[in-house]
């Protein structure tokens, strides 16, 4: 497998896992949960937030590299940031859609909303870096 296919494969794997785990997570019986308990919804939203944060960092680095004349002008980082931002946004949307309660119920809805903010930021940074790297080529 070439390096070019790695980000797409990783994004497809994450989306496949989410697609398989969402129906199972929807049938969990609603039980009282503690404030610090790690539930499935909180875990998914935290993983997506970390993925989105990594996408923002990689997109920012790609944006900084695309202005220079060294390396690959940030195009690989831009694609990685786009994929990470998309995965973060999709997972956040699924968490918010599956949540049956508000903040503090253990469904991870607050993290889902954070994902819906961080994911598009990563996608915008990746898109800007990709556009700049193609323009300077």
Commentary on this structure:
- The structure is a single chain.
- The chain has one domain.
- 73% of the residues lie in helices and 0% in strands.
- It is built from 4 helices and no strands.
- The chain is elongated.
- The two termini are 26 Å apart.
Describe how the helices and strands are arranged.
Layout: H1 6-26, H2 40-66, H3 75-98, H4 109-136
Helix pairs in contact: 1-3, 2-3, 2-4, 3-4
Class from secondary-structure proportions: mainly alpha
Count every beta strand, where a strand is a DSSP E run of 2 or more residues. 0
**Structural domain tally:** 1
Unreliable residue runs: none
Q: Alpha-carbon distance between the termini?
A: 26 Å
Helix tally equals 4
| Overall 3D form | elongated
Order of helices and strands: HHHH
User: What's the helical proportion of residues?
Assistant: over 70%
Report the major sheet: none
Radius of gyration (Å)? 17 Å
Percent of residues in beta strands: under 5%
Provide the residue-averaged pLDDT.
Answer: 79
Sum this structure up briefly:
The protein has 137 residues and is mainly alpha-helical.
Key traits:
mainly alpha; 73% helix; 137 residues
